[in-house]
Amino acid sequence: MQSRRQIDSFGVFVLCVIAIGVLGISSSRGAAAMGTLGGLRDVKDFQNSIETLDLGRFAVDEHNKQQNGDITFRRVVAAQEQVVAGTMYHLTIEAEDGDHPKLYKAKVWVKPWENFKRLEDFKPVEQPSVSRADLGVKQGS
Hints:
Helix content is about 40%, strand content about 35%. By secondary structure, it is an alpha+beta fold. The longest helix has about 35 residues, at about 1-35.
């Protein structure tokens, strides 16, 4: 009787170890697929994304309204996203101020289920000078 209990206890122990291992593997795969919650991750294929293009235009338009500015949107140069209460998009935007192309960093907070979109930050990238050639798309990529 004593050995039967030991065998049953050992069997339960082995099943628990296996279950914990399986749960650990599946949760780590899910976390890797999602990215770190709250961490920044690159927006895939942002150059061909209408949503990213619209967010870039929105950021420039909102900046112009808030600052009585007159910069002209050209394109999104880089895009990252961060999961918050919604999504915070971190964009690097090429725009023209008069005839001078410049780069700007913008943060746009989006909560689609509330039809909410707000410009959180917009500032020029600190660079001594930027020419059109510096902002051009590289050939052969």
